[in-house]
Design brief:
Tetracycline Repressor, domain 2
Length: about 220
């Protein structure tokens, strides 16, 4: 039998006041520890030691470490990429401006040292025999930004403003092309120029290439 899918937003709606504040702190602490130490090296006791409260409360709200990890991934994904979707409606017919907005935000994330820790965390989990639910959650987290860009491109395609066969593949290609010059070398520990000037230069060039390839109507 498949495990039930968790939903962070509905979970928090069931809480109020002190309980919500406590659970928010637990999620933030767990996120930090998972990034810094890796999934396998973090226990529920470790989280309680930093977040405070009791182990009983932690298990009451989150069930186990696997469920907590899923909550963390869902919440952080929404924090990072939920605003993209909300802003996308303001960019109808302005694909170049949309891609610049998305690209700037995405490269800001890539430039953050936590992005390196996140990639290492995901790679390490790939070698563990984890449940299908965790694998699906990781995949959804990784594809969240792709889906936001893809939905925007699909709407532009339906409006006849761009020409593209597969909008999801196009979104994937855009974000991958944006990230690749900066991420892989840094994951390997190689010093890389990821200054704001360098990021902006890379973004502007990529946006021009994509807009031409999409046959953007002027």
């Amino acid at each position: 039998m498949d495990e039930p899918k968790c939903c962070m937003s509905s979970f928090f709606k069931e809480l109020s006041g002190k309980a919500e504040s406590r659970c928010t702190k637990i999620v933030d602490v767990a996120h930090r520890l998972f990034l810094d130490r890796g999934y396998e090296n973090v226990s529920m006791n470790d989280i309680v030691k930093v977040a405070g409260g009791s182990l009983a409360t932690l298990y009451k709200h989150f069930g186990n470490k696997e469920q907590l990890f899923i909550y963390v991934m869902e919440q952080k994904s929404e924090e990072l990429f939920g605003e993209w979707k909300r802003q996308s409606v303001c960019y109808e017919g302005r694909i170049e401006a949309f891609l610049m907005m998305i690209g700037t935000s995405y490269l800001d994330l890539v430039a953050d040292d936590d992005s390196i820790l996140f990639h290492r965390l995901i790679v390490s989990l790939g070698y563990l025999d984890k449940s299908q639910l965790i694998k699906e959650t990781i995949l959804e987290t990784l594809t969240h930004p792709i889906n936001v860009v893809s939905e925007y491109l699909e709407n532009e395609k339906k409006a006849g403003r761009i020409e593209v066969d597969d909008t999801k593949l196009c979104a994937h290609q855009f974000l991958n092309a944006l990230e690749e010059p900066f991420m892989f070398s840094r994951v390997l520990g190689v010093e890389t120029d990821i200054s704001e000037t360098t990021r902006l230069k890379a973004l502007r060039q990529l946006v021009r290439i994509f807009c031409r390839g999409l046959s953007v109507s002027q």
